[in-house]
């Protein structure tokens, strides 16, 4: 950028060292700035305990363009690091800038385009930038942007198009990054599963109050009285005719994204835990779940992971909810034929169940079921000594259920047979 030429423009402003040029969140500003002399730093949470310095900029760099071209509110605070002179471009002199400074404005376009390409490349977002640019700009030659002799309105429009594209792609990148942080590393971007949606007579809707944000929400649940059991797996997964109930196990509040199992969801939460609502707000922004009767497997995965994240924030005994959620994740990954994640979820479930065994206060029956589940998971993960240890506990459980005593005894026999065959 030819700074000597830019200096001829009259709209300059001077800032002293440590003077704030723009404030994060300001909605009134309508200017962008090009640094002519000095340097500035860009901050989030300026002068707060969690202050972060994002970057430092030097002569030739520009900032504030999103506010000028898209009327967007400021998203960071910019502070002069030393006595600094900037060129101010606002709605009054923008056309003058494009007309008198074709070189600087072309440089502005080239820099914005370069940023677009970098965000796209670093985020692995799209094959090319066409989803982010209007159709009429598809053939535009961005490598040799030249604004000399061009109508300033046209140049203005080009910059505006680039700012819009940058805004769109940044939103996608932020969402993708947040989703990547939300799910474990090996969780795929999309899963699909081949199941029929249940007949409407198997479901009912009811109003419920979210215990965290206190909004009234509608939830869809299976009608317990209409469910016909087909079979129960050894780890207590129950299959019903015409409906996959795992899809309806978790309720996510569409307002705040607090999530828990349906039979625990309405339980009141201690006031001091409710303050943690700020910890789950970002999840609402990235996931935007609003589950109705039709459930998508990817939303079900998100709901289960939300339970795992919410449990330690809102409950003193998080491990029971977490172990139930991991066990369901194990089932669903298995249904989706993702063996790696299925095994991972099973290990997590076992880890949480062992923790629950140590810590949770359970009825004799619940304790017996817990021991069988630990036994079954250990067996599947080939940890035979642990499997035997917990199945023996379940078999000798006083006050438990006869059916579960038999189940534990049967499994112990299987293990003995297996050991005899030496496999
Ligand atoms: Zn809520």
Pick out its properties.
elongated; four-stranded antiparallel sheet; 13 helices; Jelly Rolls; binds zinc ion; alpha+beta; 423 residues
What is the fold's blueprint, element by element?
Layout: H1 3-6, E1 12-15, E2 20-22, E3 32-37, E4 40-44, E5 52-57, E6 62-63, H2 65-70, E7 77-80, E8 84-89, H3 94-100, H4 102-123, H5 152-182, E9 203-209, E10 216-222, E11 229-232, E12 238-240, E13 250-252, E14 259-261, H6 271-274, H7 277-287, H8 297-314, H9 318-335, H10 339-359, H11 364-380, H12 384-395, H13 402-421
Helix pairs in contact: 3-5, 4-5, 5-7, 7-8, 8-9, 9-10, 10-11, 11-12, 11-13, 12-13
Zinc ion (ZN) is lined by residues 210, 212-213, 215, 253, 255-256, 258.
Can you describe this structure in just a few lines?
It contains 13 helices and 14 strands. The protein has 423 residues and is α+β, with helices and mostly antiparallel strands.
Strand order of the largest sheet: 1-8-3-6
- Count of helical segments? 13
Give every kind of bound small molecule, once each: zinc ion
Using the 3D structure, state the CATH architecture of the largest domain: Sandwich
Low-confidence stretches: none
Binned strand content: 5-15%
